[in-house]
Amino acid sequence: MKRHTRLNQKFMNINLRLLRSHVLTGICIAFLLNIPHILQGQSNQFSFDATTYRWPNSSPGKLVSSDLDNDTKDEIIVSSPKQKKIYVWEGIPANEGQSWTMKDSISLDGRVLSFCIGDMDGDSKEDIITLSNKKGYNSIIGIFLNRSTPGSIKFEKKYSIETNGSAYYIAAADLDGDKKTDLIVADFEKKSLTFLGNSTDKGMVNFSRSSRDLGIRPNYFVVKDINGDKRPDLIISDYDKNTLFVLQNSTSLPGQISFTQVDKLNTGSGPVDCLVEDLDGDKMPDIAVANLFDNSLSIYMNTSSPNSQAHFAEAKVEISVKSPSSLAAGDLDNDGMPEIAVSSEKDNNTVILKNYSSLHNISFEKIREIPVGSAPQHVYMKEMGKTKQLNLVVSNSYSDNFLVLKNLHPKESLSPVDTISISKQDGSKTEKISLYPNPAKSVIHISFSSPVKRSGDILVSIINALGQEMIRERHSVSNLITMDISKLTTGFYWVHLSSSGYHIKTIGLAVE
Predict the structure, then answer these.
(1) Inter-residue long-range contacts of 230-235, CB under 8 Å, 24+ positions, other chains counted
(2) Residue 157 to residue 138: CA distance in whole angstroms
(3) CA distance 504 to 498
(4) Rounded Cα–Cα distance for residues 502 and 481 (Å)
(5) Which helix (H) or strand (E) holds 470?
(6) β-strands 63-66, 155-162 pairing
(7) Tell me: the pLDDT tens digits for 292-323?
(8) Which end of the chain is more exposed for a tag (fewer CB within 10 A), N or C?
(9) If residue 212 lies in a helix (H) or strand (E), which one and from where to where?
(10) Are strands 127-132 and 48-54 parallel, antiparallel or unpaired?
(11) Would strands 443-448 and 458-464 be described as parallel, antiparallel, or unpaired?
């Protein structure tokens, strides 16, 4: 019993501490301008303008962003385990984009262990679902329904549900394909998952409860479709044994939620967070894990085929970050490949990892370290507001604040022309490009008039007439690219090349 008490306290302390185009006009050759950095760091490739939002004695943890009142401005929802509250910061207009002001708070009976958002009652507005501890054995799920209207944030507590033991993590997703948002809870002491199937009728939220024994003590999980069958799967962390378990959705009927284990991955010591994103451009999501005690990241490449049983292989990417506590992913430089942001609790910064991956070859390089505050707990990445600019948000527990890091890299825009040439943004000599043969059957060549030194690789995408990307490849050669197009069917396509420091041009490709 004493051992269970110590384990409970251990995991509660860890969780509390770490809670943390239209392309139918031509083939695009997109080269983006580097901007001088605003925050100090090793590279000007990633530039941010930081704004701090502070409130005393808050020790903020996990945060997310969503437009809660449907006014086109995103709110920021952030937990304060210390104050036993969830805070809602309302998005308001600003000179450039938007800013935030504290609008509302939700008080809980115990410390916040986890929270998520999801539309529980089918009114197309995101509700807030909390998980808090309780004196005694069980944790408490609170469901706060969103009653907001444009310009007015309001939540109403409607439901309180006890778990079957000490739980540490909660998430929301439609697990059985009935268009209703279900809940998943990690039951630490019971070594299981609890599924709360949503059977809402006419706005009245109801749940059917089922469980899945795991044989491990889960401390967090990620819900994501990992094999392309449009059903959410689960990646679950066993913190004690430094392991991830991959569970594939095997639900066949609404209301009968079922998962089957298909893979088991060994991580570094202390896996505290993970993300699931397509890191190498093959349309299949990969896994990255933050290992708190190993000061490292583990990355696993998805080796499965679409709609098949999922499997992963270690990508053997060596990345060192001191006490990584949280991960987020997004395309910060608009080259079509997601970067990874890592919060370093020990170094008080957010580390930006530049994505240099190619098809089935995952590669990252640490390129920025941004000072953010004391003991950063959670890093989050989201396209926000009307401009849909991808920004970073970081909560800093010991600084009692969160930072919004506005991404200053310009969004890519397409400018169709009927020539195939490029010129650098600095006005230097134009470089001619040839694509041949055109029409083509099985192979195309893209040649450059001179071997130009570029600041990064060239990303090539071939897009069909419906705007669907059919081929994506990354090339480091300076004057000639050769591509196999034998799998393309007869028709008209657009080729899109992107690199850094060049203007945009376009051209078309006919395949025989």
Answers:
(1) 231/175, 231/177, 232/173, 232/174, 232/175, 233/259, 233/310, 234/184, 234/193, 234/259, 235/274, 235/276, 235/287
(2) 19
(3) 9
(4) 18
(5) strand 469-475
(6) unpaired
(7) 999 999 999 999 988 899 999 999 899 999 99
(8) N
(9) strand 207-213
(10) unpaired
(11) unpaired
Which residues, in sequence order, are bridge partners of residue 354?
A: 365
Q: Provide block-wise average pLDDT over 10 residues at a time, the chain (512 residues).
A: 38 40 30 31 68 95 95 94 96 80 92 96 95 84 95 91 90 95 93 93 86 91 94 93 95 92 95 94 92 95 92 94 96 87 96 89 92 96 83 96 90 37 45 80 79 63 83 77 89 79 65 88
For residue 279, report the phi and psi dihedrals to the nearest 5 degrees.
-95, -20
- 203 contact partners, CB below 8 Å, separation of at least 6: 121, 122, 123
Q: E strands of 35-187, at which residues?
A: 48-54, 63-66, 75-80, 85-93, 98-107, 112-118, 127-132, 140-146, 155-162, 167-173, 182-187
> What is d(CA 174, CA 223) in angstroms, rounded to the nearest whole number?
10
Query: Three-state SS string across 356-370, please?
Result: CCECCECCEEEEEEE
Measure the CA–CA gap between 2 and 353, rounded to whole angstroms: 42
Q: How many whole angstroms separate alpha carbon 14 and alpha carbon 217?
A: 14
Residue with tokens 């509302």: 104
Percent of the chain with pLDDT over 90: 54
Q: pTM value?
A: 0.76
Say how far apart CA 340 and CA 354 lie, in whole Å: 7
In whole angstroms, give the CA distance from residue 175 to residue 168. 20
**12 DSSP 8-state letter:** H
CA end-to-end distance (rounded Å), the chain: 72
* Residue where the block lists tokens 């916040």: 112
Name which of 84, 106, 101 is nearest 154 in CA terms: 106
192-198: strand order across its sheet: 167-173, 182-187, 192-198, 207-213
315, 312, 368: which is closest to 342 by C-alpha?
368
DSSP assignment of 313-377, as one string?
A: EE-----B-SSEEEEEEE-SSSSSS-EEEEEETTTTEEEEEEE--BTTB--EEEEEEEE--SSEE
d(CA 364, CA 1) in angstroms, rounded, equals 45
Residue type, 351: V
Phi-psi region of 14 (alpha: psi -120 to 50; beta: other; left: phi over 0): alpha
Token pair, residue 481, equals: 């690219």
CA distance 260 to 225: 14
**Paired tokens of 401:** 């604040």
Coil vs helix vs strand at 10: helix
